[in-house]
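Example S7 (structure tokens).
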């Protein structure tokens, strides 16, 4: 493969990764403006975040099967197209355009979530760690930029124009990916005879990986939703609680970057399992036990954020290391993400109900138990041999 073609593929992977959270994270700061303009009734605002999660849960297995059958590169092209169509429909000034566009964006994100790990394994078998680091870092960094700047942009150019600005990222990704597609190795059927003999739903390790993904998903999305309320209940004002929650989100990025490389070392998988579970456990114990002092709680937020970043990247590493082919990676990724995002969608709602029954301290205790369970399951996965798929 020519050097310029390699860099084109790398750039394409970066751009697909950049779109895997941005269409979701840019929306919360825009909801008030969209509601005030009459485009989105406040009663339907929650759908802007719940629709993508539902798409992840429903479509992940199908995307995995399509990727295994036709090749990750081809299916990612349609995912990139769905992102562009979704961004375009969101600009239609009515609620149906916004919601249907959000569903299409969710479909496009699902394609990237499921198939990028498989494509990296196929195209960069000797550079899996660095390529995985690149796309997960792009995903988290661009998502944070979207959250941090969309509200400011909306004040100057309006919510619709802001969505158009960020939607342009998906257009660039599609244009570049159309150039990438002919450069891919493209052996979508190479492992079909082997894959036909393997049903992942009959493999206990596949279910353990799916459960690990689900636990880290429900912890991340539930804590992201409710940590501000927990800190406010402890005595901080809304601004301070929001600052602590931002620290939790931002400090997942360093571990997103480091995890794939750490996992390549001897005992690396087990080390990352300890970092992921330990980060959640130490941070949650600190939220419960540490004094209500900003710098102490900031440390707890950073530690929890590091744990969440390690846990998410570890899932991607499990998809790649615990299967023997790109097709197996795609299928396992689809299976695990389907169940995981069902838990992610249910978690925040369930925790709100739990808070009324057992108070926020009880919710933190439940999260602590889930973190310990995630760590035990991760340790079993780390020691287990790869699936013959």
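Recovered sequence:
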């Amino acid at each position: 493969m020519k050097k310029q073609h390699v860099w084109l593929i790398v750039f394409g992977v970066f751009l697909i990764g950049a779109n895997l959270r941005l269409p979701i994270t840019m929306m919360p700061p825009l909801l008030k403006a969209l509601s005030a303009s009459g485009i989105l009734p406040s009663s339907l605002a929650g759908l802007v975040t719940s629709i993508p999660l539902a798409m992840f849960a429903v479509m992940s297995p199908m995307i995995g099967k399509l990727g295994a059958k036709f090749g990750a590169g081809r299916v990612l092209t349609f995912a990139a197209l769905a992102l562009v169509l979704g961004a375009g429909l969101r600009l239609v000034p009515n609620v149906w355009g916004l919601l249907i566009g959000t569903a299409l964006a969710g479909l496009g994100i699902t394609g990237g979530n499921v198939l990028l790990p498989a494509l990296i394994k196929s195209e960069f078998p000797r550079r899996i760690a660095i390529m995985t680091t690149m796309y997960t870092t792009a995903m988290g960094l661009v998502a944070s930029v979207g959250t941090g700047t969309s509200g400011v942009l909306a004040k100057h150019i309006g919510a619709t124009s802001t969505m158009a600005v960020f939607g342009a990222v998906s257009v660039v990704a599609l244009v570049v990916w159309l150039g990438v597609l002919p450069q891919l190795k493209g052996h979508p059927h190479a492992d079909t005879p082997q894959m036909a003999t393997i049903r992942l739903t009959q493999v206990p390790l596949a279910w353990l990986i799916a459960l690990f993904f689900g636990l880290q998903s429900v912890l991340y999305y539930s804590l992201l939703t409710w940590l501000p309320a927990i800190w406010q209940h402890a005595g901080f004002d809304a601004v301070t609680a929001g600052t602590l929650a931002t620290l939790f989100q931002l400090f997942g990025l360093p571990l997103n970057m480091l995890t794939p490389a750490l996992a390549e070392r001897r005992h690396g998988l087990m080390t990352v399992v300890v970092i992921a579970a330990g980060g959640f456990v130490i941070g949650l114990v600190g939220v419960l036990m540490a004094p209500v002092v900003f710098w102490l709680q900031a440390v707890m937020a950073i530690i929890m954020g590091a744990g969440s970043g390690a846990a998410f990247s570890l899932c991607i590493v499990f998809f790649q290391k615990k299967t023997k082919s790109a097709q197996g990676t795609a299928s396992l990724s689809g299976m695990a993400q389907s169940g995981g995002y069902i838990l992610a969608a249910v978690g925040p709602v369930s925790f709100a109900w739990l808070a009324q029954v057992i108070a926020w301290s009880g919710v933190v205790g439940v999260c602590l138990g889930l973190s310990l369970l995630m760590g035990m399951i991760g340790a079993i996965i780390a020691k287990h041999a790869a699936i013959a798929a």
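Notes on this example. Residues 322 and 386 are 4 Å apart (CA to CA).
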